[in-house]
């Protein structure tokens, strides 16, 4: 189905019909529509600027193909570029040569870290990889209870030391426990924190230094706005992430935060959360998200024609 | 950290002391977009500003003062003409405050903070633990009940009907002459029809079982949200008959600009802001402070 963006692109490109060259002058209206679409999808403004510049360069390199709707031709350029930027193919979870594989979860408050910890554990269990979950959130009321409840649901053990212990120490002992149990993977859940909270970022950094994770996953809410760029920058700079999980994609947000996360960190989005239930985790597919950001369900069949 | 130059100085460096030019207006536009104000609301704000600038050549500080007026007017409009602007429960009456929102927005934490505020202000309070779905949601709200000395009405069964919990809580509150009943609900995404229907049912129970109560229906919005916040406000308005907004996580660096779009398009006042995870980190909303923070970051 065509939507408003496709219509607008078509309008902007009607002017180009009969012209055989895409020029800097005649492309501006079209680029403006793409800019608006990306901003409405919550892609960060700076990321949008860089992206538009790339698309412009690409488009200028291509002539108008006769017989093809120039609007569709342009959408293909934008779509291809989006897919390219978001990483083209799915990147799997780390799998250390020598178990246990250590995974560290990090992110702002309420993004879905604890839920994603359980989802990952279940996902791995289904692949015959045994897990231990470690609860280091001593701050949020009942955070440990939450992890224990989830562990119970999916039949995965949880290591915790209550709320009086130091999170760094809990993480350290959690890894020791994983080795003792001989599990394949240990997933360390952490408390939510703001990237501008130096104390909490320091704690996370110490946890990371202590457990030396194989994967450090930033958990980002798909509904996040412009802030996605700032928070990704800070977590990547101060902690160093190796991937991300985009949660709450079962909502109707456009998920432009994904583009910001990928562009700012250079790290892949590995999974998406698509529900509150522990089964609701899927690998990330850049092409699907590109269609979603452009708000065009049928973009694939559309671009095949172009 | 990075030092921030005030917006006025930033604009002065672009235009000197003279009237604002297009580059400067673009700068303001960027700032609004980066605060999640959204394209439509930003267009409106910029057009209003430009109309003024065409009629009158304003230097940067004059233009900023006018911009602030535009923004504050948007935020104050839902309450314009209302006399008593302080937002408090009515003493000696039965007040029910229903908190709703998407997953992880900060509903339960806000319930805890409100219970604290209510108790300290001398109201008799009670909490309805109507999130019967999320793992340990009841334990979480019970911790807040203990911290604030507020009784929590919960149903020990698993996956019980949240509307039934609300029903029981209203009965308990009425029996005890409670002045403020705070209702915690499960997070739900607004495109989940069954969950929105469940919320509408909760609202119906409140209206029926406590027909004389003063009901406030507050949507909890995370300041980190982008444009989806607007959609949330639209759909929750329908299901829960919203009367206001609580904007949480403003202690972060996100500006919560989507709240501007929400007040503008849905005529909903912002009542409180959350500025931390602690029990005291709740403040009444001030449009003046919000606009200052938005522009001066
Ligand atoms: N619809 C939906 N809800 C989700 C998803 N992932 C998590 N949630 C919900 O989001 C809320 C927050 O999830 P948590 O896992 O507690 O988030 P967290 O990051 O651990 O939160 P803190 O520990 O407080 O920072 C809960 O209501 C979850 O059920 C998802 O993919 N889809
Ligand atoms: N920094 C900050 N964190 C907050 C604020 N309000 C809530 N939080 C945190 O956000 C996370 C989620 O808060 P909750 O109160 O559990 O959110 P909720 O809306 O009840 O979540 P669900 O019931 O799972 O939908 C917790 O880690 C809270 O401590 C705030 O104003 N600032
Ligand atoms: Mg958690
Ligand atoms: Mg809650």
Structure description:
The complex is a heterodimer of chains A (306) and B (297). The radius of gyration of chain A is 22 Å and the shape is elongated. With 306 residues, chain A is α/β, with parallel strands linked by helices. Chain A contains twelve helices and eight strands. Chain B contains eleven helices and eight strands. The model of chain B has no long low-confidence stretch (mean pLDDT 93). The two termini of chain B are 13 Å apart. The longest helix of chain B has 17 residues, at 39-55. Chain B is elongated and about 65 Å long. The chains are: A alpha/beta (306), B alpha/beta (297). At the A-B interface, helix 2, helix 6 and helix 9 of A face helix 2, helix 6 and helix 9 of B. The structure holds guanosine-5'-triphosphate (GTP) (2 copies) and magnesium ion (2 copies).
Summarize this structure briefly.
Chain A has about 300 residues and is of the alpha/beta class.
Q: How is the secondary structure organized here?
A:
The complex is a heterodimer of chains A (306) and B (297).
Chain A: H1 4-14, H2 28-40, H3 45-61, H4 70-86, E1 101-106, H5 113-126, E2 131-135, H6 143-154, E3 158-159, H7 167-181, E4 185-189, H8 198-211, E5 215-221, H9 227-238, E6 243-247, H10 257-265, E7 269-273, E8 281-283, H11 286-293, H12 299-305
Parallel strand pairs in A: 1-4, 1-5, 2-3, 2-4, 5-6, 6-7
Antiparallel strand pairs in A: 7-8
Helix pairs in contact in A: 1-2, 1-4, 2-3, 3-4, 4-11, 4-12, 5-6, 7-8, 9-10
Chain B: H1 7-15, H2 22-34, H3 39-55, H4 60-76, E1 95-100, H5 107-120, E2 125-130, H6 137-148, E3 152-153, H7 162-175, E4 180-185, H8 193-209, E5 214-222, H9 228-240, E6 244-248, H10 258-266, E7 270-274, E8 282-284, H11 287-296
Parallel strand pairs in B: 1-4, 1-5, 2-3, 2-4, 5-6, 6-7
Antiparallel strand pairs in B: 7-8
The complex binds guanosine-5'-triphosphate (2 copies) and magnesium ion (2 copies).
């Amino acid at each position: 189905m065509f939507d408003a963006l496709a219509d607008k692109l078509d309008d902007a490109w009607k002017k180009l019909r009969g012209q055989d060259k895409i020029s800097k002058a005649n492309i501006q209206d079209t680029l403006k529509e793409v800019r608006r679409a990306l901003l409405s999808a919550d892609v960060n403004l700076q990321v949008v600027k860089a992206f538009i510049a790339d698309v412009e360069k690409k488009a200028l390199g291509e002539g108008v193909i006769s017989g093809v709707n120039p609007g569709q031709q342009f959408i293909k350029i934008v779509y291809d570029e989006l897919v390219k930027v978001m990483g083209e193919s799915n990147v799997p979870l780390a799998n250390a040569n020598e178990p246990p594989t250590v995974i560290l979860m990090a992110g702002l408050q309420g993004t879905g870290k604890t839920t994603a910890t359980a989802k990952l554990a279940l996902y791995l269990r289904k692949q015959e990889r045994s897990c231990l979950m470690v609860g280091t959130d001593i701050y949020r009321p009942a955070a440990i209870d939450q992890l224990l409840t989830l562990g119970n649901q999916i039949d995965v053990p949880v290591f915790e030391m209550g709320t009086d212990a130091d999170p760094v120490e809990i993480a350290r002992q959690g890894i020791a426990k994983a080795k003792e149990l001989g599990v394949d993977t240990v997933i360390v859940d952490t408390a939510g924190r703001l990237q501008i909270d130096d104390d909490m970022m320091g704690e996370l950094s110490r946890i990371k230094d202590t457990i030396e994770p194989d994967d450090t996953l930033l958990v980002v809410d798909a509904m996040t706005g412009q802030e996605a760029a700032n928070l990704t920058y800070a977590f990547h700079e101060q902690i160093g992430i190796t991937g991300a999980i985009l949660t709450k994609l079962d909502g109707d947000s456009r998920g432009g935060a994904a583009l910001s996360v990928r562009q700012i960190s250079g790290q892949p989005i590995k999974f998406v959360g698509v529900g509150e239930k522990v089964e609701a985790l899927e690998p990330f597919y850049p092409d699907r998200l590109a269609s979603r950001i452009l708000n065009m369900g049928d973009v694939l069949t559309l671009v095949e024609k172009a | 950290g990075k030092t921030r130059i005030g917006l006025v100085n930033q604009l002065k460096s672009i235009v000197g002391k003279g009237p604002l030019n297009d580059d400067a207006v673009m700068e303001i536009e960027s700032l609004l977009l980066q605060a999640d104000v959204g394209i439509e609301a930003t267009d409106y704000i910029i057009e209003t500003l430009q109309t003024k600038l065409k009629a009158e050549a304003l230097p940067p500080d004059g233009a900023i003062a006018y911009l602030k007026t535009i923004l504050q007017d948007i935020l104050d409009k839902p309450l314009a003409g209302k006399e008593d602007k302080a937002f408090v429960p009515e003493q000696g009456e039965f007040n029910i405050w229903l908190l709703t929102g998407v997953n992880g927005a900060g509903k339960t934490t806000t319930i805890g903070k409100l219970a604290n505020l209510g108790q300290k202000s001398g109201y008799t309070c009670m909490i309805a633990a109507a999130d019967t779905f999320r793992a340990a949601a009841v334990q979480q709200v019970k911790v807040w009940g203990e911290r604030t000395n507020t009784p929590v009405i919960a149903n020990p069964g698993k996956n019980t009907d949240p509307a039934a919990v609300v029903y029981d809580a209203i009965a308990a509150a009425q029996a005890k002459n409670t002045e403020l009943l705070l209702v915690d609900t499960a997070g739900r995404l607004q495109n989940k029809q069954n969950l929105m229907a469940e919320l509408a049912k909760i609202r119906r129970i409140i209206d029926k079982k406590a027909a004389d109560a003063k009901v406030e229906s507050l949507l909890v919005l995370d300041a980190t949200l982008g444009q989806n916040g607007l959609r949330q406000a639209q759909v929750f308005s329908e299901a829960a008959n919203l009367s206001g907004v609580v904007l949480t996580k403003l202690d972060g660096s996100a500006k919560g600009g989507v709240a501007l779009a929400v007040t503008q398009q849905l005529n909903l006042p912002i009542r409180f802001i959350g500025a931390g995870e602690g029990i005291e980190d709740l403040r009444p909303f001030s449009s003046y402070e919000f606009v200052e923070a938005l522009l001066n970051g």
